[in-house]
């Protein structure tokens, strides 16, 4: 799942001095740009002798891919996938604006954009060891490759650098998160994205598909790694490709960009729905007798807690700077480990949940549901380009991706095996619902499960909200309209969550219909479309195989999930 806020870039009107700096850089640069789509090479366009001012001016020229909807994709996904230093501000406070400034420039016209120097940072503090001249030159090349300026609004005619006294220096640590993440930091960012609420349903997936269904988990993990590598190949194939929508644009034109963007946003929106269902189920387990009576209307615990959760998360979606939430939600790795550890503690130490049978080896009728549940676990491809761009050594990306997928798979498999051993055929769609409420480990697991989605809801909804705000006319991009739009998104997700309160089935539907396209089908299709003249026959065969398998899984999984959801109403 770019043109990033995390790249400390800003949009303001250009002046003659900046244009002259660009021209001087072109005439005096020793390393002219030599790019060609045929070989996919990207030569360094900056010489070590270039001044930071010249390099910054040269980098201000946006890629053609970043000028089309959604321009906000990179910024919002950086917020979703990275840790930011806490800083609280609301949409209606232009002087404290961070994230949405570039998309609301017409609403706050006349106010200079601020430096977002602390908005996006690597998951862990990066090393501040001074770099050599070669490393500085390489960083300058990466800055050129990645557009470090926010996309212009409809009214903006050109780009100008930020004031010189506030300008980040090229080649120094302050430039941004690009080339700042170590191998370990990249792995932790990847695990933080992959280990979400999907881990709670892995025991339920074993119940649906049987023990042999765990093979599907391993196969999907291996294919997710391969398709992640394909995305990297696509990004490196042409100058200016930075996001998943950019890849779709390069492969299939504007229609491909729009379709891929819609699928990615639908996946994020569905994840927000899952958050509300999860909160409703787990809080109802903690407080089963809670209810609210208004006249002749009585709200049971499930409805009540879903509404309360929506009311709690709604103000967080109005925040312009979500760094405070992202800083907390980055503990998703720790939260997943804590939840799985509590499950093992309850089973091994408290000796809870002995089953009478060994379970089913293979349950063919439940395999489609299991495929969707396992597939949902690997829905991180929209963020992989960000992880790739953040690495100090980008040639480590295959190893980073392999490690984070392997670690995530170990957590998924551990929770699945232990949960199904403990609860057998009585396994719920979330194993936290099976944990005895009187045990300390159970309470820790449940409260950890309840807390994490509250911090992640706004981060997950923001990409969709920003993309819709881009479509508003400039004179409608006002604070009341934006708050109304984001509030409508929250209310709509609440309505869907109350209408389809089936956590496991909704997850299977999302995993089958959306994740299969995002993680498996589209990466292969884009790879073949962009690099069709360079791929080998076995790459074509493997990609076609993955596409066919993905389409089959998407078809049977979607049909099975929808059928079971419909059956719930009969």
From TrEMBL:
<keyword id="KW-0029">Amino-acid transport</keyword>
<feature type="region of interest" description="Disordered">
    <location>
        <begin position="1"/>
        <end position="70"/>
    </location>
</feature>
<feature type="transmembrane region" description="Helical">
    <location>
        <begin position="290"/>
        <end position="313"/>
    </location>
</feature>
<feature type="compositionally biased region" description="Basic and acidic residues">
    <location>
        <begin position="23"/>
        <end position="33"/>
    </location>
</feature>
<dbReference type="GO" id="GO:0015179">
    <property type="term" value="F:L-amino acid transmembrane transporter activity"/>
</dbReference>
<dbReference type="Pfam" id="PF01490">
    <property type="entry name" value="Aa_trans"/>
</dbReference>
<feature type="transmembrane region" description="Helical">
    <location>
        <begin position="537"/>
        <end position="562"/>
    </location>
</feature>
<feature type="transmembrane region" description="Helical">
    <location>
        <begin position="366"/>
        <end position="388"/>
    </location>
</feature>
<dbReference type="GO" id="GO:0005774">
    <property type="term" value="C:vacuolar membrane"/>
</dbReference>
<keyword id="KW-0813">Transport</keyword>
<feature type="transmembrane region" description="Helical">
    <location>
        <begin position="400"/>
        <end position="423"/>
    </location>
</feature>
<feature type="transmembrane region" description="Helical">
    <location>
        <begin position="258"/>
        <end position="278"/>
    </location>
</feature>
<protein>
    <recommendedName>
        <fullName>Amino acid transporter transmembrane domain-containing protein</fullName>
    </recommendedName>
</protein>
<feature type="compositionally biased region" description="Low complexity">
    <location>
        <begin position="43"/>
        <end position="53"/>
    </location>
</feature>
<comment type="similarity">
    <text>Belongs to the amino acid/polyamine transporter 2 family. Amino acid/auxin permease (AAAP) (TC 2.A.18.5) subfamily.</text>
</comment>
<keyword id="KW-1133">Transmembrane helix</keyword>
<feature type="compositionally biased region" description="Polar residues">
    <location>
        <begin position="60"/>
        <end position="70"/>
    </location>
</feature>
<feature type="domain" description="Amino acid transporter transmembrane">
    <location>
        <begin position="180"/>
        <end position="561"/>
    </location>
</feature>
<feature type="transmembrane region" description="Helical">
    <location>
        <begin position="483"/>
        <end position="506"/>
    </location>
</feature>
<feature type="transmembrane region" description="Helical">
    <location>
        <begin position="211"/>
        <end position="231"/>
    </location>
</feature>
<feature type="transmembrane region" description="Helical">
    <location>
        <begin position="513"/>
        <end position="531"/>
    </location>
</feature>
<keyword id="KW-0812">Transmembrane</keyword>
<feature type="region of interest" description="Disordered">
    <location>
        <begin position="124"/>
        <end position="165"/>
    </location>
</feature>
<keyword id="KW-0472">Membrane</keyword>
<dbReference type="InterPro" id="IPR013057">
    <property type="entry name" value="AA_transpt_TM"/>
</dbReference>
<feature type="transmembrane region" description="Helical">
    <location>
        <begin position="325"/>
        <end position="346"/>
    </location>
</feature>
